Amino acid sequence: MFEILKPKVYINSVYNIDLRKLKKTKKIKGIIVDLDNTLVAWGQKEVSQKTIDWVKEAKRLGFKICIVSNTNSKRVAEFAKIFNIPYHSKYFKPFSIAFNNGLKILDTKKSETVVIGDQIFTDIWGGNRLKLLTILVVPIVKKDSIGTFLHRNLEKIFISFWLRRSIIKKEVGNWPK
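and the corresponding structure tokens:
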């Protein structure tokens, strides 16, 4: 029943994604990534060098990468400029238009594209609806917008249930293995 909400992979952060293996074993060419609490802490104005390096490494390995975010366009544009990647914002994830626009930007097929984000009800649900590979990351910080805060409690219930029943497993090291 809740299969549409379940991530294919649950992991601590983008840094735990082995980009080389993702490309080789999963045949992924494109990355649709969320911004707030996935690449940068919610509300922060700066980005860590580690995150900049992660994006550079993804691009160096040949991945096409774009930000798809519900955050305001100005904020997303500022970070996209730092990362030197394209973006789309205010597309109301989880609706298909957000992810379809990401696919158009990347010029990749669904089977070649991964969605990485920190929210079940936007990133994962939307990615799963289009049958994209979905990776749920632990939010960088606990602070969120009021709308997201309300979803977090329900997400915690789902994640706890899935983990207890071994429906999902939290990858603590690099993924894929």
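(Above: one complete record from the training split.) The longest strand covers residues 64-69.
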